[in-house]
Specification:
- By secondary structure, the protein is of the alpha/beta class.
- The protein has 2 domains: 171 residues, 3-Layer(aba) Sandwich (Rossmann fold), CATH 3.40.50.1820; 72 residues.
- The chain is built from 7 helices and 7 strands; from the N terminus they run βββαβαβααααββα.
- Strands 1-3-2-4-5-6-7 form a 7-stranded mixed β-sheet.
- β4, α2 and β5 form a beta-alpha-beta unit.
- α1 packs across α2, α3 runs antiparallel to α4 and α5 packs across α6.
- The longest helix is centred in the middle third of the chain and has 20 residues.
- It is globular and about 50 Å long.
- It comes from Micromonospora inyonensis.
- This is Thioesterase domain-containing protein.
- Belongs to the thioesterase family.
- GO terms for molecular function: hydrolase activity.
Length: 289
């Protein structure tokens, strides 16, 4: 991990780096399969959310989260252009990050939103439903079965706290052994902070750069109307659901879509897409490089 916040999946290559923004868990590791999906000359980085696996306090708002990612990215890899990708909540943060990068004079030759719901088009769960969503997300992201845990949680009183829910899951032995009580509480706290930040975020300003929405076939198209927020949106539908697109046929289709999106980002000088007058690198973050 570089700068305690950036996972380098592939360091070398002549194209602008593909920078992957984490989903609600804050983890960079779901993006590891991208190394095998993109061209050999494509650098790939994945950001890690503050508080995921270190002592940094979690970001309390989505703009704060994006600002921290921008600072980490520019410290780890100063450049004049970045391609951005975000899955789920990561797509919403990537959208805001793209706005910030372009405002700072950086090129964003590709913005890829992977199965990302427009934040203003959905309501987020509370109480036990919120805990259930956390558990399902945690298990499904790693390819674990979710129905045994969902059944246990469905049998609890509606007012059950996360601590009570995790105790019930432990007693039922429906979770992998490495997901102990303290781990669940730590990861739930970050999930809860991120979900609150997402629910309060309202995109403004629009976006006129190229956007590719890669939507899972089983996901609701009506909740992913990014053309209300961006003027140049291309949608690609891949087989599977929100989680299975990271495995098997869905992952292969995601790889094809991603290579198509990145096919014109030829070199790290950004010659094809840099706006007139762009400097060799984005302005440095506060405090220097």
């Amino acid at each position: 991990m570089t700068d305690h916040a950036v996972l380098t999946i592939r360091a070398t290559g002549h194209r602008p780096a593909l920078c992957c923004v984490p989903a609600i868990s804050g983890s960079p590791y779901p993006y590891l399969p991208l190394r095998a999906l993109v061209e050999a000359d494509q650098p790939v980085l994945a950001l890690e959310a503050p508080g995921f696996d270190d002592g940094r306090p979690p970001a309390g708002s989505l703009p704060e989260l994006a600002a921290g990612y921008l600072d980490s990215l520019r410290r780890a890899r100063p450049d004049r252009a970045y391609a951005l990708l975000g899955w789920s909540m990561g797509g919403v943060v990537a959208y805001h990050l793209a706005q910030r990068l372009r405002a700072a004079g950086c090129g964003v030759p590709a913005l890829v939103l992977v199965d990302s719901i427009v934040p203003t088009l959905t309501r987020h769960p509370e109480g036990l439903a919120r805990t259930t969503r956390f558990v399902v997300d945690l298990l499904a992201t790693s390819g674990q079965p979710v129905e045994p845990a969902r059944a246990v949680l469905a049998g609890l009183p509606a007012g059950s706290s996360p601590e009570e829910a995790f105790t019930a899951l432990s007693r039922a032995r429906v979770l992998p052994d490495d997901l102990d009580h303290s781990f669940l509480l730590h990861r739930y706290a970050l999930f809860d902070t991120h979900l609150t930040a997402l629910s309060r975020y309202r995109p403004t300003g629009g976006y006129d750069g190229p956007v590719t929405l890669v939507r899972a076939a089983d996901s609701p198209a009506e909740l992913m109307r990014w053309d209300d927020l961006a003027t140049d949106v291309t949608e690609i539908v891949v087989p599977g659901d929100h989680y299975s697109i990271w495995r098997g046929e869905g992952l292969a289709a995601l790889g094809r879509a991603l290579r198509r999106c990145l096919s014109t980002t030829y070199d790290d000088r950004g010659r094809l897409y840099a706006r007139k007058g762009t400097a060799d690198a984005c302005p440095p973050p506060p405090g220097g490089a």
